[in-house]
Write a structure and sequence with these properties.
Order of helices and strands of chain A: EEHEEHHEEEE
Strand content of chain A: 35-45%
Largest interface: A-B, 32 and 30 residues
Helix content of chain A: 25-40%
Oligomer: homotrimer
Number of helices of chain A: 3
């Protein structure tokens, strides 16, 4: 059994982390899959999808840390194309662009603190995440 | 066909890398799946699962490198909640928290040097990894 | 339905990024899978597989950035085994070693700028990527 849906984002800020656990759970429920896996994958190359803690302080730490590892404002080669978002490509690479969440007994089989996040690094435009459920 | 099992860890040290290739292979054999994939995913957000070399020097290099990229002992915002492990969240993000291993002809279809590891960054407590086999 | 194929690489240079979107699409077409997922995973531990932009400037930026985060030429412990490629293990860890690409209506369900790349960090030798299709 395969079931596909898409989540749309258009964030207010250039950088924004959005919790999407409930959206993914809703799609899994609609799929009717009882045992399987769901792929949650950013379809744009300056955004990521990751699993971690739902705690504002930690989200702030992630953002400060990413800015240190992959600074904005450097003279990246990519910017010679007219773009100015090379750092967004690098930041999303650190965070990862997709996760697979196991489905057991009809529910997301997540640990106690696991939450799914969409990480936008070049927002204020329409972007999509694919949610693809596969199982029995 | 879907088959689910869990591996439990309670490491002696705060940080510890544990080879789990044989544990995953044992679960795949028990599943009866001949062609498919197995998801191996940390269920706690300060641990990772990755594939790389089984060589103690390299494991040491990984640990030194992670400490450089995501230092412990900084005054992270997350620590205002009473936690002291923000760096563990960052380190596991670099290493990745899950892998998918292909199963071909009933066996893990791994390259010559590929080994599956559990990377603990905040141990000395009970933690779980889900191993979910999907295939035919 | 499960279908497996392998891509072989033997790059001219030690470090080389190779676009493989069309190779993966060809294998998916051969598989006959209409709805499902394809795993694309490096079978060697000094190479990665990632999804990002097909733009030479950005590829250059990735390479400069990886050299900064995971420098070659340091005295890594791993080198006491006679190897000299510890940095290649670290670089591939940043980029990731595998991706899952969704298949919808018989095609790779990729966003407008998503391209699949093989990232070689220790080339000039024969290496393999597994491409495993699962679906209906």
């Amino acid at each position: 059994m395969v079931f596909t849906d898409y989540l749309w984002f258009n964030t207010k800020h250039q950088q924004e982390f959005v919790r999407i656990t409930d959206d993914v759970a809703r799609i899994v429920a609609a799929s009717g899959v009882i045992e399987g896996k769901v792929l949650v994958s950013a379809m744009h190359i300056t955004a990521g999808v990751y699993v971690n803690d739902w705690e504002d302080g930690l989200i702030h730490d992630f953002q400060v840390w990413l800015e240190k590892l992959a600074p904005s404002g450097l003279s990246y080669e990519h910017h010679q194309t007219g773009e100015d978002n090379a750092d967004a490509h690098l930041k999303r690479t650190i965070m990862g662009h997709q996760v697979i969440v196991p489905i057991t007994a009809g529910k997301l089989d997540l640990g106690p603190w696991e939450q799914i996040f969409y990480a936008e690094f070049d927002g204020q435009r329409k972007k999509r995440v694919i949610v693809k459920v596969l199982g029995a």
